[in-house]
Design goal:
The protein is an alpha+beta fold and about 110 residues long. The protein has one domain: YaeB-like fold. The chain contains two helices and seven strands. The chain has a seven-stranded mixed beta sheet. It is globular. The protein starts with 6 loop residues before the first strand and ends with a strand.
Length: about 110
């Protein structure tokens, strides 16, 4: 059993900061927030490492939304927060539309 603070994964983003998530926090995402993401850790790492676009949250300038197509008309979104240069995953989910917010990076 993993320690609650043990890192499940940490990924370098195209924006030059790393995003991490712990084992326990990933369990919160896949059991409470978005159970559809269970078993999709590698996919989320790829979204963070190689997104099609990144948007800045309209509500919080330290929150970034990373998007990658899942299939036609569907995206996978990884939501991160960056504080003092450190990034962490807030949540991840499939969606049919990108949220509003300034597009700050794209392929």
């Amino acid at each position: 059993m993993a320690d609650n603070n043990e890192i499940l994964f940490e990924v370098e983003t195209p924006l030059g900061f790393r995003v991490r998530v712990t084992f326990d926090y990933w369990q919160v995402i896949v059991t409470i927030k978005h159970p559809v993401m269970l078993g999709r850790e590698a996919e989320i790492q790829e979204v963070l490492r190689n997104p099609d676009e990144i948007r800045l949250s309209k509500k919080d300038p330290s929150v970034y939304l990373f998007y990658k197509p899942e299939r036609i008309g569907r995206w996978v979104c990884a939501v991160t927060k960056r504080l003092d240069g450190e990034g962490f995953l807030i949540t991840a989910y499939p969606t049919d539309a990108a949220k509003e917010g300034e597009r700050i990076w794209h392929k």
